[in-house]
Design brief:
heterodimer, A: mainly beta, eight-stranded mixed sheet, five-stranded antiparallel sheet, globular, B: mainly alpha, 33% helix, elongated
Chain lengths: 248, 131
């Protein structure tokens, strides 16, 4: 376990574990700061665009602004790489006049902002993950086609898994496949609502394997979504950075 | 990067037949030079014929925009740069090797959700998630 990993500017800029309102429970994602981003954002409906979800891959550290305007206040600066060394990505929600509305990782969960379209590399994915906390089940779909379904362990009552719309920020191969995270961990953009630090991190949630397979199907985790180790290996093959993850 | 490397490799593997065909064509055109002489870079210059560097010939009219100078000088019969494979690889409309035309670049941002595409994004680290 490596302690003290800095999990990126967006994360470090938001210390504390103040629970945030669930602004991401139902799409479309609302701006976390309604007095700024939401008012400044254009009222037009989201661009339908091609199928799937847009992904913005950062080339360098990137300022995220409250509105699609170079003079708008900066919400946060996202570093080019995450604390794990992954290339930083943002999930694209909308596009307007050369600007992209993006979902920002870190606290508060569900925060959005705008970045210039020409400052990122754009990709798309048609795949998506849905985690049903009540059913304790994870589903991977490609469009309307289901690719994978698995039972999962979710957060315990005192450390619940946050709900909302997130995306994959890290594809981490662990150095200890038989350890508590299994062979892979897929870091998500969300943070725990009750833990502002855990294991040297800032409460970042993830989908990962486990060394406690008996916990699968129960509310037993500290907020992460645990899947069987064979399943997490498949997830690491199926999903790319930026894949949307809805937890409900 | 991968596609270009593949293209260059493919072209290089066909280099010898292409040159053979060009030499045969040159002989058929009346160049009265022996096979051994043709291999001599000095011969053309000795005859006072500084042949211009030409684009790689192509049935499709391929004309590379920036021919590579012949590192050995204008020595061979056709005056082509020795490393014609570079020129062929740069052609964008088919060439003498009958390689398939390059596919048109996608107009939409590419999808990266195919297995294997994300391999480069996998990092090895000790996780510090909530567990």
């Amino acid at each position: 376990m490596v302690l003290g990993l800095a999990l990126g500017g967006a994360c470090s800029a938001s210390p504390g574990a103040t629970p945030v309102s669930d602004t991401t429970a139902a799409p479309p994602v609302a701006a976390a700061d309604p007095t700024a981003a939401a008012q400044a954002a254009p009222a037009a409906a989201p661009n339908p665009g091609p199928p799937g979800t847009g992904i913005a891959r950062l080339r360098a550290d990137l300022e995220v602004r409250q509105a699609p305007d170079t003079t708008a206040p900066v919400v946060t600066t996202v570093p080019a790489r995450t604390g794990f060394g992954s290339r930083s990505v943002l999930s694209i929600l909308d596009e307007h006049d050369g600007w992209l509305e993006v979902l920002v990782p870190g606290r508060p969960n569900g925060r959005t902002g705008w970045v210039p379209a020409d400052e990122v590399e754009r990709r798309r994915t048609t795949r998506q993950v849905t985690v049903d906390l009540a059913a304790r089940e994870l589903i991977v779909a490609d469009g309307d086609r289901e690719l994978l379904r698995s039972a999962v362990a979710v957060g315990a009552d005192e450390t619940p898994t946050p709900t909302g719309r997130f995306f994959v920020t890290d594809l981490v191969r662990t150095p200890q496949p038989t350890g508590p995270y299994g062979p892979f961990a897929l870091g998500l953009s969300g943070r725990s609502d009750v833990l502002d630090q855990f294991g040297g991190g800032d409460g970042q949630i993830a989908i990962h394997g486990t060394n406690a397979p008996d916990s699968i199907g129960r509310a037993a985790s500290h907020g992460c979504v645990r899947v069987p180790n064979d399943v997490v290996g498949k997830l690491a093959e199926l999903l790319v950075l930026g894949t949307p993850v809805t937890i409900r | 990067m991968t596609a270009r490397s593949t293209s260059a490799t493919t072209t290089t593997s066909r280099r010898r037949p292409v040159r053979s065909r060009l030499l045969a064509a040159a002989l058929a055109g009346g160049a009265l030079l022996g096979a051994a002489s043709m291999a001599s870079p000095a011969l053309a210059g000795g005859l006072g014929r500084d042949l211009p560097i030409q684009a790689c010939p192509s049935p499709q009219g391929c004309r590379p925009s920036d021919p590579t100078p012949d590192p050995k000088g204008p020595g061979d019969l056709t005056g082509r740069p020795d490393d014609c494979t570079v020129l062929l690889a740069d052609c964008d409309g088919g060439d003498i090797t009958d390689r398939p035309r390059p596919t048109t670049p996608p107009t939409q941002p590419p999808t990266v959700d195919e297995p294997g595409d994300q391999a480069a994004d996998v990092v090895v680290a000790s996780p510090s998630f909530t567990g």
